[in-house]
Specification:
binds the ligand O=c1ccn([C@@H]2O[C@H](COP(=O)(O)O)[C@@H](O)[C@H]2O)c(=O)[nH]1, globular, TIM Barrel, about 230 residues, eight-stranded parallel beta barrel, single chain, EC 4.1.1.23, alpha/beta
């Protein structure tokens, strides 16, 4: 059984009951759990506290992106829920990221603070429409800024992992959504990689949602992916 589980299961469920039913079937040694915007909006901080109380490391994936004071207060509130990881958007800029970092300084339970670079659903064409360069340029730029601002790591595609490990160092955590086992539909994800290839490229954590939660047997799928990483 994995001691430091690499898989963060995205609990993108429509209600707390479905999320708790999933959590009942898995153990904290098999996976960490990610609560994102859909579930948090419907179930709120109470559900996060329930998952933490059950012994799970929880990644609160709310991707804060606002003025520095607002983001600082939001990450502090997240820390007080007992979450293991929380994130902000790197494109919120230096002042915002530094305010978030400083806000956590005196927290007794300090979560990992991670910055989103470029969403894994985005490709070069979508970035160009926003007047931004391709992922191969924009992701390293934002990752380097996140490192300078004292972030613990970034959300990126595993496709960028080799470059980012060289640029930002081994300790800088790479959290990678857009994970698709071979043969599984990409859906709305653009920059994808298989679990095995992502780990080999240097990803520290694999965020996996639908390939597990919407599979015929979610527990068996989780176990199979864990086994493929061992
Ligand atoms: O760049 C990003 C940042 C966050 N996500 C989140 O990860 C999961 C992925 O779910 P899948 O079902 O495996 O596609 C989802 O909760 C996203 O909000 C991301 O995909 N990309």
């Amino acid at each position: 059984m994995a001691h430091d589980p690499k898989i963060l299961v995205a609990l993108d469920f429509q209600d707390a009951a479905a999320a708790l039913a999933f959590a009942e079937r898995v153990s904290p040694s098999q996976c960490r759990l990610k609560v994102g915007k859909e579930l948090f909006t419907v179930a709120g901080p109470q559900l996060v506290e329930q998952l933490v109380a059950r012994g799970f490391d929880v990644f609160l994936d709310l991707k804060f992106h606002d003025i520095p004071n607002t983001v600082a207060q939001a990450v502090k509130a997240a820390a007080r829920l007992g979450v293991w990881m929380v994130n902000v958007h790197a494109s919120g800029g230096r002042k915002m990221m530094e305010a978030a970092r400083d806000a956590l300084q005196d927290e007794p339970r300090k979560p990992l603070l991670i910055a989103v670079t470029v969403l894994t659903s985005m490709d070069g064409a979508q970035l160009a429409e926003l007047g931004l360069p391709e992922p191969a340029v924009q992701v390293p730029l934002l990752a380097r800024l996140a490192l300078d601002c004292g972030m613990d790591g970034v959300v990126c595609s595993a496709q960028e992992a080799v470059v980012l490990k060289k640029l930002c160092g081994a300790d800088f955590k790479l959290v990678t959504p857009g994970i698709r086992p071979a043969g599984v539909d990409a859906g709305d994800q653009s920059r994808i990689m298989t679990p095995e290839a992502a780990m080999a490229a240097g990803a520290d954590y694999l965020v996996i949602g639908r390939p597990i939660t919407q599979s015929a047997d979610p527990l068996a799928t989780l176990q199979a992916i864990n086994a493929s990483l061992a």
